[in-house]
Amino acid sequence: MAAHRKPRPSPLGRRAARTAATLALASAATATLFEGSGHADPAGHGRTPAQVRTEVDRLYQEAEVATERYNGAKERADAARVSYDRLRDEAARRTERLNTARHSLGAVAAAQYRSGGLDPAVQLALTSDPDDYLERAALVQKAGDRQAAAITAVRREIAGLAQLRAESADRLTTLRGHETELRRQKATVLDKLATARRLLARLTTEERARYEAAVAARTSPTAFGGGATARADRSSGDRTTAAAAAASAAAAASAPATGRASAALAFARAQLGKPYVWGATGPSAYDCSGLTQAAWRAAGVSLPRTTYTQINAGRRVSRSELAPGDLVFFYSGISHVGLYIGGGQMIHAPRPGAPVRIAPIDEMPFAGATRVA
Q1: pTM flag (> 0.70)
Q2: Among this protein's residues, is 178 annotated catalytic?
Q3: Which of 39, 45, 103, 336 is catalytic?
């Protein structure tokens, strides 16, 4: 008897089975996408809330680097524009003086033409009165001196005007270069911020609330996981935030500050709660270096615009030497700055969505400090 054979599945059946398996795997991946222990999908399109926070923080930090570069380019562009406008004004004044000198020279030439163009010596020889001769000789000499001075003035103004025009052209080229850099850095900032907003928009309302609580309390990314642990972390995070704010206020109130540092700190405290806006220098909003610049300006000290120039605006001090009013800097690229208030705390403008506030200097990688006055 022939052996019994099992029927083979048709090609259509095999394709259906593979499709079902694929759908099952896709469903399983979707179900774990926003769980705390989940992982991003292989294509990188999906992220867990913890990964979103990490990516958003990175984007904000890169945006701040670009913001400081934008601030530097704007400072250079503004200086180049002022210089260019000054050169143009000077060129206008020189042009007016040149026209005046040319008019004066033309008047002398017209007088010579009306007198028949006779050589002054011949005109003098024709007079028979000795006194008249001497008087007219003196006048002719003066006229000759005036004519020579007029010619010299015209030549000087032409040369000066040509030099000014060349300098203006160079300064205009420099200005356009700075403006190009300004536009490029602005585009970089806006792109980073837009990407961060898109990532945050993928979170649910609850996940977004956890994210904001973690940002405020500087909690661990694991607080974005699901379940009771995350809810407990959020609750404790709220209490921690309130306690930290109270401790910060107490430290700020008790920190000794004198002279200009005291004035700078008083100004900075008055800005608490105002929004962070990249490129802003007040009075309604600030970025990090805009806040420190405005604070010290209120104390009568002119600071440069950017973090990487502000760090060289005074005497470097170590972390152990910090005193209220010192500028404290963060990250290896010196891309963030705050105003130290004592007790390990600072006032700073953190990032978009986080207003000017008091925070511990330990919340970011410390890079150095400078004492302005």
Answers
A1: no
A2: no
A3: 336
